[in-house]
Amino acid sequence: MARHQVIVAGCGEMSNAWFDYAAQRDDVSIVGLVDIFEENAVKMAEKRGLKVPVFNDISVALQSVDANLVFDVTIPSSHKAVVTAAMEAGCHVFGEKPMAESLEDAREIVKVSERTGKRYSVMQNRRYLRQIRAFRDYLHTGAIGKVGSVHADFFLGPRFGGFRDVMDSPLIVDMAIHTFDQARFITGADPVSVYCHEYNPEGSWYQGNASAICIFEMSDGSVFSYRGSWSAIGLPTSWEADWRVIGNKGSARWDGTHMPISEQLKEQAGDAFFHEVVQTEVEASWNGREGHVGCLDEMFAALEEGRPAETDSLDNIHSVAMVFGAVESAKTGKKVYL
Length: 338
Ligand SMILES: NC(=O)c1ccc[n+]([C@@H]2O[C@H](COP(=O)([O-])OP(=O)(O)OC[C@H]3O[C@@H](n4cnc5c(N)ncnc54)[C@H](O)[C@@H]3O)[C@@H](O)[C@H]2O)c1
Known about the structure:
By secondary structure, this protein is an alpha/beta fold. The strands form two sheets. Strands 14-13-12-11-7-10-9-8-15 form a nine-stranded mixed sheet, covered by helices on one side. It is about 35% helix and about 25% strand. It has helices at about 15-25, 40-50, 60-65, 75-90, 105-115, 130-140, 165, 170-185, 290-305, 315-330; strands spanning about 5-10, 30-35, 55, 70, 90-95, 120, 145-155, 190-200, 210-220, 225-230, 240-245, 250-255, 260-265, 275-280, 335. It binds nicotinamide-adenine-dinucleotide (NAD). Nicotinamide-adenine-dinucleotide binds near residues 15, 34 and 74.
């Protein structure tokens, strides 16, 4: 019997990446599929050649098959119910971001994880990239000195249709969780406060606010600014955002597509009007697998080593706090302490 007996909850678009991953591992066996629209689970079972029971309710699935791990690939508003039911039934959970649709729900999930001793690891695939790891490692060498400012721009115009079109805050809740989590990853700092202005400019095809500007104060004293839109037509940034980090000895940039670059003070620089700098092309040293696969590799490794994964809910709650702090600030018009 394979070591990991997995129920997959949510058989929509994103689950394909999870099924592909599971098929690569001989220690994973899929033992059941769940979708509130059972026909989605039936179709997925056929597509994947899986001869396993299908259900329309996670609780029934948990009672009916012998599983020790649940992949939660349902929509954000279903995560809390699916994840808590799974942990209460004795399963670990690996799930898609965001943890939940509110900070209270995310905190309740963390409590259930602590009480049951079951791990809930969250998909933050955008940490598992050679370039962002090189960027983070480079900043931590101190080459640009103490980091004071971190800026991220995110401008894209995707037409998803589906749940994102009707969410109140699609950009902040469904997407910015990645960029906020990346900011924590790059700096190693946690958020202290946020001020956010959220809006939905003319021409946006989303019902909720698909543009936002946020200012975060971080625990290392730096400021992280985020400017984003999901209804920006033309001149797109990368999905990883376009980053500029400013330290007291230089600046580093990562456009999310190419290797990061930096300019830092020349040793024995003179006192010209503009500082004399040298340019560095940052080099990659991390050789893990990238994206979803890399994040899932870490989740499984952590489970096997009996430690929380890098993106365990105990850590991810800080990224979630950035999201819901921003939403609260946008609603109240006030700076929110996290
Ligand atoms: N990490 C990433 O880069 C990335 C990219 C896209 C989507 N996602 C995330 O993946 C998740 C799924 O997104 P998607 O695009 O596949 O959505 P989707 O709408 O295509 O699929 C979701 C599926 O979940 C099912 N579902 C909803 N509630 C359920 C419940 N309570 N129990 C069982 N099934 C349920 C739906 O019927 C649907 O089939 C979301 O959380 C989304 O934010 C992550």
